[in-house]
């Protein structure tokens, strides 16, 4: 078992889960990244969630999911992408606006484009009112999770959409940025979130049109 995981004082179950995750990622990215890179990304992803996770048993799963996204981003930066446009949605907590935008983007674009999201001060969970309002449109974002952004994720994105994160949002020269001024759904009831949701859908559809990505009806 890698010493990397032992040094963190993890339980045996967590160590085994991370070891299994590293093996899965190694198989998935064989020929693109070596074991050292994969374990480093998994290790640092775990650290980013460790201080906020409400249930420690879920940490290895969150770390694996985020490490996978980061490795895909790094592959894109290093010239191994598949050509599909990547859009990154950023807000403060990655619990409401950016998650709703990602939900619409993923649903409407299908496999034709890639959507990611992140937060400058990512929360411990998704806003329940955002989940409920999206469910009314047949889109399930309950399985998503707040996450930070990392350098390779921002670098890989073709378009970065910011929503209220101000100076905390990362700026990379030459990258396309849009700032969407939207009310923060934090603390709002579902009926108050619906107008925000509908405006986000309108903007996502317009963005897909600009990217020449046909949106599902």
Commentary on this structure:
With 217 residues, this protein is α/β, with parallel strands linked by helices. It has eight helices and four strands, in the order H-H-H-H-E-H-E-H-H-E-E-H. Helix 5 links the parallel strand 1 and strand 2. The radius of gyration is 18 Å and the shape is globular.
**Tally of separate helices:** 8
**Can you give the helix content as a percent range?**
40-55%
Task: Just name the CATH architecture of the largest domain.
Answer: 3-Layer(aba) Sandwich
Oligomer: single chain
Strand order of the largest sheet: 2-1-3-4
Overall form: globular
GO molecular function: arsenate reductase (thioredoxin) activity
InterPro entries: Phosphatase-like_N, Ptyr_pPase, Ptyr_pPase_sf
Keywords: Arsenical resistance, Oxidoreductase
Pfam family, one: Phosphatase-like_N
Highlighted features:
217 residues, Helicase, Ruva Protein, domain 3, Rossmann fold, 2 domains, 4-stranded parallel beta sheet
Question: Can you describe this structure in just a few lines?
Answer:
This protein is of the alpha/beta class and 217 residues long. Helix content is 48%, strand content 10%.
Show the helix and strand layout:
Blueprint: H1 3-6, H2 12-28, H3 35-50, H4 59-77, E1 86-91, H5 97-109, E2 114-119, H6 128-135, H7 151-156, E3 159-163, E4 176-179, H8 190-210
Parallel strand pairs: 1-2, 1-3, 3-4
Helix pairs in contact: 2-3, 2-4, 3-4, 5-8, 6-8
């Amino acid at each position: 078992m890698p010493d990397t995981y032992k040094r963190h004082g993890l339980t045996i179950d967590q160590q085994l889960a991370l070891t299994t995750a590293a093996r899965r990622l190694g198989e998935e990215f064989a020929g693109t990244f070596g074991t050292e890179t994969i374990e480093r990304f998994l290790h640092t992803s775990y650290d980013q969630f460790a201080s906020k996770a409400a249930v420690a048993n879920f940490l290895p799963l969150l770390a694996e999911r985020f490490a996978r996204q980061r490795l895909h981003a790094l592959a894109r930066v290093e010239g191994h992408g598949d050509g599909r446009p990547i859009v990154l949605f950023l807000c403060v907590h990655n619990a409401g606006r950016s998650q709703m935008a990602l939900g619409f983007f993923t649903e409407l674009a299908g496999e034709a484009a890639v959507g990611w999201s992140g937060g400058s001060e990512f929360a411990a969970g998704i806003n329940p009112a955002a989940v409920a309002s999206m469910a009314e449109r047949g889109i399930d974002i309950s399985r998503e999770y707040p996450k930070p952004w990392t350098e390779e994720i921002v670098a890989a994105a073709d378009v970065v959409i910011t929503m209220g994160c101000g100076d905390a949002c990362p700026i990379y020269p030459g990258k396309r940025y849009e700032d969407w001024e939207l009310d923060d759904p934090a603390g709002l009831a579902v009926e108050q979130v619906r107008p925000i949701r509908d405006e986000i859908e309108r903007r996502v559809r317009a963005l897909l049109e600009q990217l020449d990505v046909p949106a599902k009806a």
